[in-house]
Design brief:
Layout: H1 3-14, H2 18-24, H3 29-43, E1 48-49, E2 56-57, H4 59-82, E3 89-96, H5 98-102, H6 105-115, E4 118-125, H7 128-137, E5 142-146, E6 154-162, E7 164-168, H8 170-173, H9 184-189, E8 194-196, H10 203-213, E9 221-223, H11 227-235, E10 241-244, H12 245-253, E11 258-264, E12 269-276, H13 282-294
Parallel strand pairs: 3-4, 3-5, 8-9
Antiparallel strand pairs: 1-2, 5-12, 6-12, 7-10, 7-11
GO molecular function: DNA-binding transcription factor activity; transcription cis-regulatory region binding
Keywords: DNA-binding, Transcription, Transcription regulation
Protein name: LysR family transcriptional regulator
């Protein structure tokens, strides 16, 4: 029995299928299956029920899994303890939303590369629901997602919050001379559409709560899955919408957009670090700490970073 065999077993046991587990370990499916078969031979018993459409853990496999995970965790701790200068190594696939990619993600990657030059990061940008599913299937090590996960198999640790403001093109926001900013409520009641992220986005809950609070039951929504696309339509006076407060400031400074009277939404959107239950690798613990230091949705990466 070897650590590589146990590693192959644990990934196969916790990923949606052997193909995903093999990809995470950068092995072929046949190489992964060979390691698991060798482990089963050394233990003298099968660990998976292979009679179904996909291999499932049998009783012996379920009993072995927590013990195998504990052995791998201990081995990783020994490596970090006795070779601390080496830092983390290998590959880490993780997911973030577009707002993270526009704000703190570049600085986070730069920080990780300085501290752990042997660790290769593979960031994926997508909406939260997709990233959460990929974490659950084992395709991603972790994800930074709005809200807390509703999956039992996924743990969530709150990290930071993002504030959003209502904005519109200056011509749409002005209602009289001298200029006076109108409110989002006025503009929506007047029939202006909202330019928003798709319904699966975390901001949908914020907007729905705000609409309910102001008694707005019918409004046209134009969905776009890209903040840049939303900002472009707002500048073009297609409608009104919310934008991240920090990121949108440059557009306000350039007089391309104006904050509306009721600019800030009453609630901010919380983001959390989400990872699979039972995955206690030092890799996740250290990257979770770095995320706590780096996640900042007020950062605008289109501007030069201060020294």
């Amino acid at each position: 029995m070897t650590l590589k065999q146990l590693e192959a077993f644990c990934w196969a046991a916790t990923c949606a299928n052997f193909a995903i587990a093999a990809e995470r370990l950068h092995l072929s499916v046949s190489s992964l299956s060979k390691r698991i078969s060798e482990l089963e031979v050394s233990l003298g018993m099968p660990l998976f029920d292979r009679s179904a459409h996909r291999a499932l853990l049998n009783e012996a496999g379920q009993a072995l899994l927590p013990r195998a995970q504990a052995l791998l965790d201990n081995a990783a701790t020994v490596r970090v303890t006795f070779a601390p200068s080496a830092g983390l190594a290998g590959r880490c696939a993780f997911g973030v939303g577009e707002l993270s990619a526009l704000t703190w993600l570049p600085q986070f990657i730069a920080q990780v590369r300085r501290q752990h030059p042997q660790l290769t990061l593979e960031p994926y940008v997508d909406v939260g629901s997709v990233l959460e599913s990929r974490v659950a299937r084992g395709e991603l090590d972790f994800a930074i997602i709005a809200g807390r996960s509703s999956h039992y198999d996924i743990l969530s640790q709150p990290l930071s919050q993002a504030q959003f403001i209502w904005v519109a093109a200056p011509a749409m926001a002005v209602s009289s001379k001298p200029p006076a900013l109108r409110s989002a409520v006025d503009l929506l009641h007047a029939g202006q559409p909202m330019i928003v992220l798709p319904p699966s986005a975390g901001t949908t809950r914020l907007i729905d709560d705000w609409l309910l609070q102001h008694g707005i039951t019918a409004v046209e929504r134009i969905n776009c899955n890209n903040w840049g696309g939303i900002a472009g339509m707002l500048i073009a006076s297609v409608g009104i919408g919310i934008l991240p407060a920090g990121w949108s400031q440059k557009l306000i400074d350039q007089s391309l957009l104006e904050p509306l009277i009721d600019s800030e939404l009453p609630a901010s959107l919380s983001y959390s670090f989400q990872w699979r239950r039972g995955d206690n690798r030092p890799l996740l613990d250290q990257l979770r700490r770095l995320c706590t230091q780096c996640v900042d949705f007020t950062v605008d990466m289109s501007r030069p970073l201060s020294a």
